[in-house]
Amino acid sequence: MSKKTIKMGIFGGYRGSYFYKCVLANNAEIVAVCDFNEKYANKAKEMLGDDVAVYTAFDDFIEHEGLDAVLLSNYFHEHAPYAIRLLERGIHVLSECTANATMAEGVALVRAAEKSSAIYMLSENYPFMAFNQEMRRVYRGGSLGKVLYAEGEYNHPLDHTDAEYAIELCPTSKHWRYNLPRTYYITHSLAPLMYITGAMPKRVTAMPVYAPIQSDFNGISRGVPERAAILTTLNDDDSVFRVTGCADFGGREDSYRVCAEKGQIENLRDGTGRVLLNYNKWDLPENVSCATSYYLPLLKDKDDALAKKAGHGGGDFYVIREFLNCIRENRRPEFDVYFGTTMASVAILGHRSMLENGVPYDIPDFRREEDRVKYENDNLSPFYGTDGTEPTIAATNRPDYWQSAEGRAEYDRMVSLRKKSQY
Ligand SMILES: NC(=O)c1ccc[n+]([C@@H]2O[C@H](COP(=O)([O-])OP(=O)(O)OC[C@H]3O[C@@H](n4cnc5c(N)ncnc54)[C@H](O)[C@@H]3O)[C@@H](O)[C@H]2O)c1
Which domain covers residue 118, as residue numbers? Predict the structure, then answer.
């Protein structure tokens, strides 16, 4: 194991700032932060001290001397091009979700990661929540048998009356959150199921849940009238998953359920963090006397106390620890480029399925050249680019709703009025 202190850079200082303490607690250094919004660049100095170098342009940031690794926490749909440039320089990449926003980017990212001496990891934190770690421990222990069916829900409604927070999250009608199709933010529902069971999606189909939010301000997916997309995947082990993208059902919750041959395990929706483990009474493992048990998983992790202080149920801490340990031990992360791009393919092709009212799409295996060639020029995107590029595919199953120039202008006008009234 290398003893050298890893020097990290953070690209994108809003979400990025949530990781500062986690990086330091894992004995790495943050040497540079880049954000073109000076507010977040200055926040980095406040939180990390004057020694941290602060940049507003990626081209200068990447030149920072001695950069070993970078966390990409810039816009959701613009990670892959930066990841590729870093990998080409041999700089390790920890990328926030999503790995890639177009199929062509997924192909390019896999090719760059295969050529690079550096490690690529997706910064997916939900699998590291205590109940998901426990479900993996039990499932991998074998007592439940093989997975048949699993469910993952990432249900994240926001208070639509909280205009200030909505504007912070979604400052213009061209921001990715405004235009986020409901299938795209897939990792928080799907990754835990893949992590628990090891299954990889091979086919996807998706249905829209049409229910426009009648409110001026909602910080996520304001430009689309769907509240959720319900995706079904058929997997490489013949199991089936049913997952949401980023859903907006009433009542915030993240829930996961794995149904296997001999029983089921799920996290309870009562906010306690407990799991329910339920066996067939004729399939009880040795030393288990009761078919049904409810319990709070007790993680026996040496860093449990540190993780408790971090966001997303400790997930933010464990994701950083895993990335840094992979670098130190020169080990491939489980959330590698194939894991990341497979989930992005489920999101992107699931969206196309939803646009076509549920037509199934095969998920490519980007380990295979035939599958890469098929998608290497597929640049369809529902997002506006920072460089001014326009969307090339509808973000919603009902393109006439909210996407009009008038609807966008109205949002931007309301945002600017709100901002002015604050001064
Ligand atoms: N895993 C999680 O639990 C979780 C939680 C929140 C956000 N995220 C992810 O983090 C990423 C960032 O989201 P966010 O909440 O910070 O909102 P955001 O996308 O609005 O913020 C991105 C930040 O990056 C900066 N930025 C973007 N492009 C840049 C560029 N080319 N040069 C310099 N700076 C640039 C912006 O100024 C902004 O401060 C997204 O991918 C999002 O999905 C993940």
Answer: 7-122
pLDDT score recorded for residue 398: 87
CB 206 within 8 A of CB 232: yes
CA of 390 to the centre of ligand 1 (A): 19
Together in a domain, 115 and 183: no
In short, whether 323's Cβ falls inside 6 Å of ligand 1 is no
Q: Which structure tokens are listed for 255?
A: 């829930």
Whether 293 and 162 share a structural domain: yes
Q: Tens digit of pLDDT for each residue in 315-338?
A: 899 999 999 999 999 999 999 999
Q: Is the dihedral of CA 161, 400, 391, 229 positive or negative?
A: positive
For 167-316, strand residue ranges (E) read 201-210, 226-235, 240-247, 253-260, 263-267, 275-279, 292-295
Final residue belonging to a domain, choices 122, 156, 174 = 122
Q: Are residues 134 and 192 in the same domain?
A: yes
Q: How far is the CA of 34 from the centre of ligand 1 (A)?
A: 11
**Alpha-carbon distances of 312 from 126, 188, 259, 318, 319, rounded to whole Å:** 7, 11, 25, 10, 11
Q: What is the pLDDT of residues 256-299, one digit of tens each?
A: 999 999 999 999 999 899 999 999 999 999 989 999 999 999 87
CATH number for 155: 3.30.360.10
Pocket flag, ligand 1, residue 37 (CB < 6 Å): yes
Position 147, amino acid:
V
Q: 97: closest CA among 80, 114, 117?
A: 80
* 201 and 305 together in one domain: yes
Number of H helices, E strands in the chain: 13, 15
Residues 182 and 141 in one domain: yes
Record the pTM. 0.96
